Predict the structure.
Amino acid sequence: MIVVRSSRLAGFYARPLADRVAHVAATATAPTAAWLSAGGGLDVGTADRMSENVIATAGLPLALGLNLRVNQQDYLVPMAVEEPSVVAAASAAARLVRLGGGFTGDADASIMTAQIHVDGCPDAQAAPAIIAAIEPALLAAADAAIPRMCARGGGARAVRTRVLDAAEGALVVEVDVDVGDAMGANLIDTVAEAVAPQVIAAIGGSALLRILTNLALGRRARARCEVSADAVGGDAIADGIARASRFAELDVARAVTHNKGVMNGVDAVAVALGQDWRAIEAGAHGFAAHDGRYRPLATWQRTPTGLRGAIELPLALGLVGGCTAAPGVRAALELIAVGSTQELAVVVAAVGLASNLAALRALASEGIQRGHMRLHARRLAGGAP
Ligand code: MEV
C-alpha cells in the first residue's frame, strides 16, 4: 500500500534525530519502522552475498529531501550523499517552487536499447534493408528470450540499423525493449545475445559486443516549474539565475559544473534507492552531449514575474530487480511511495532541477561558500566530524 505523506515538515532539521526517526516510522510498515529504529544500514551478511571479497560495509547518511511537490503530489525523498549541502539545498529550492504550485513533469515509457555490434559485414550498405525485412522475426526472438517481461506487458518494440563504417563493414543493430518497472540491464543483455545469431545469419560478418547502451534516449524524464522573483530573493537574483543558466549554454566548462550540481540531487536519490547510479551518470552526460555539444541538462529563463525552469535527462531506474529487495532500499522505496518507474523518474528529475536552482541561486547571490560555511558551523555545533 502506498502512503502519501506531506513533504512540508517545517523545522524537521532542528528536531533531535530520534524525533525525526519516530516521525517517519509512525506511518511506515513494521519492517521499515524497525529498520529505521535500528539506525538503517546494511548487515554484513547481506553485503557478503552482494559482492566479492567483502570485509565490511561502507556508510553514508540517509536523509530526507523535503518540500517536494510534483504533479500535485507530495514526496518525501530519501537521499544518500556525503556532501553536507545537497539535501538542505534541494529541500530549500523545493520549498520555493512549492510556493508557485510545485513541479510538473512527465516521463517516456521504459524503453532500453540492446546493441549488437557487427563488423566484417560484406555489404554494410545493404544491411539496414535486410534487417528491416526480418524485423518481425528479430522482435519475436527478443520476446522469446524474456517471456516473463512480456507477460508483464513489456517486450521488444523496434529494431534499427546504423552503419558506422561501410568500408570496414562495421555497423550496429539496435533493439528497443520496454522493460516496465525494471532498470532492465540484464533483460537487455539477454535480448542482445539472443538476437545476434539471426542478425549475423542475415547480413554476415561477426557479432562482437552484445550489450545495452546506457544512453537511454528512449527513457527520458522531464520536469518543469515556475518560481517567482520574490521567492528567489528579488529581480536581481532572478536575473542572475537566468544569466548563470545562459553561461552554461555558452561554455562547456561551466555546463559540466552546472550538471554536476543537477546530479548532486539525482545521484543522492539514486544511491538511497539502490539504483545503478553509474548508469544514470553515464546516460545523463551522454545525453548532455548527444547533439555534438555538451549542454546543460537544466535551464532557467526569465518570465515577466520570475523564472521558468526545465530539465530533461534519461533515467534508467528500477522498482524491481537489482538490489531493490535489500532492506534499506525497500524502506527508501516505501518512503518515496511511487507507483511506477515513470513516476519515480519525474520525481528524480524534479530533485535535479531543485538542486540546480539552489546552486544557481546561491552562486548568483551570496556565493556558494557562505551557505556551505553555515551548514558546516551547524554540523560542528552538533559535534559532527
Ligand atoms: C557543488 O557540489 C555543486 C555546484 O558547483 C553546482 C554549480 O556550480 O552549479 C555548486
DSSP finds 15 helices and ten strands in the chain. Residues 83, 257-258, 260-261, 264, 359-360, 363, 368 surround (R)-mevalonate (CB under 6 Å). The chain has a mean pLDDT of 95.
